[in-house]
Design a protein that fits this description.
Blueprint: H1 12-27, H2 32-48, H3 51-62, H4 68-81, H5 83-86, H6 96-108, H7 112-131, H8 163-172, H9 177-188, H10 192-196, E1 203-204, E2 209-212, E3 223-226, H11 229-242, H12 262-270, H13 281-292, H14 297-303, H15 311-314, H16 322-339
Antiparallel strand pairs: 1-2, 2-3
Length: 351
């Protein structure tokens, strides 16, 4: 005996269809009542595993290993671009065309980079779900050709021949945080965000090294910066002011308790370098000069903390070429000291 539904809500025609479906299940050796319960559980399971719910679960798990600001940005972008379209759908019902439609819609609004990031994040959600048996396939796994390749944007950077003039203007500035930040960017050629968030505990005075933890690095790998005598001198000056604070460039006016990301850019603008030079430009400038002076490209790339094509090797090489890097960083600091007096500096032999 099997209850099919209540009359007259369930019509006779509908009851006959359900009866025939139940008979088919019996012929297949299945129990209609048990199959009905399984279907009910399946629908409940799918309802609890919508894309939005699983995406939020994944981001909450990853939050401990991600930069908190980056994690919030991912969620905010999902809420803006993805959840309104597929957030309420069970993972098992989302198809490749569904994902393509979402990603292409973001790209058509002119935010190609955002579209690419969302495609990657959607794929991560499905990969996470598949590993836990919540879905069978990843509809975002192979969508390489659905977005145009954006034009590469280069950070503004002066020509090496303009370096003496910049150094002269910088020397005339008052000794404030911005001046020291620009000088340290020039001497260490780290990324601006890595510099302004620097903490005193990261400085190894005995080894003359700056150890940046992976949480603050773009590639999420720890990075070592050899400190020249000139860089140590600037840090000692800063220590007189903020040595008791956590951050080297402490700012009580900022929620993050360090100077803002725009301080360096604004300082360069006030020196007359708007659209001509950026904090990131010092990386390009150093790389250009060091390559021109025959330093090994591997040593330069390692100091720039660029991604290694061999990801297995890259996990072990943060201190690779350290003796060469120490010599190179001191040579670079000396080069900057001499740049104003020798603008047409010739290549210098080095060991």
């Amino acid at each position: 005996m099997l209850s099919l539904g209540k009359y007259p809500v369930l019509t006779l025609a509908e009851a006959r269809k359900k009866r025939d479906a139940a008979r088919q299940l019996v012929e297949e050796g299945k129990h209609p009542t048990r199959e009905k319960k399984k279907e009910k559980l399946r629908k409940a399971h799918e309802g609890a595993n919508t894309f939005e719910k699983i995406a939020r679960r994944l981001l909450s798990i990853k939050e401990d290993g991600l930069n908190a600001k980056y994690s919030k940005q991912c969620l905010a972008r999902m809420e803006q671009h993805v959840f309104p379209d597929i957030g309420d759908l069970p993972l098992t019902e989302i198809t490749i065309p569904d994902v393509v439609e979402v990603v292409e819609a973001i790209g058509k609004r002119g935010t190609v980079e955002t579209a690419k990031r969302m495609k990657q994040l959607i794929s991560q959600v499905f990969r996470y779900a598949a590993q836990r048996g919540l879905c069978q396939h990843n509809p975002a796994a192979d969508l390489r050709d659905i977005l145009p390749t954006p034009e590469t944007k280069h950070h503004a950077c002066i020509h090496p021949s303009e370096l003496p003039e910049l150094l002269t203007k910088l020397k005339k500035r008052d000794n404030d945080f911005t001046k020291y930040a620009i000088q340290l960017l020039m001497l260490t050629f780290v990324r601006t965000g890595e510099l302004i968030g620097a903490q005193w505990k990261e400085i190894d005075w005995a080894k003359a090294e700056w150890h940046i933890p992976k949480e603050r690095m773009k590639m999420r790998r720890p990075h070592v910066v050899p400190l020249s005598k000139q860089a140590i001198g600037i840090l000692k000056e800063l220590h007189k002011t903020t040595g008791e604070k956590i951050h080297i460039f402490h700012s009580a006016a900022s929620k993050s308790l360090h100077m803002s990301n725009g301080a360096v850019l604004m300082g360069l603008r006030r020196m007359g370098y708007q659209k001509r030079m950026t904090g990131h430009g010092f990386r390009t400038l150093a790389s250009t000069v060091l390559n021109e002076n025959s330093f090994a490209s591997d040593v330069i790339e390692r100091q720039l903390a660029h991604e290694d094509d061999d990801k297995i090797r890259s996990a072990y090489n943060r201190a690779e070429y350290m003796p060469e890097r120490k010599k190179m960083m001191q040579w670079w600091a000396d080069y900057l000291d001499n740049a104003t007096s020798k603008p047409a500096r010739k290549k210098v032999a080095h060991g």
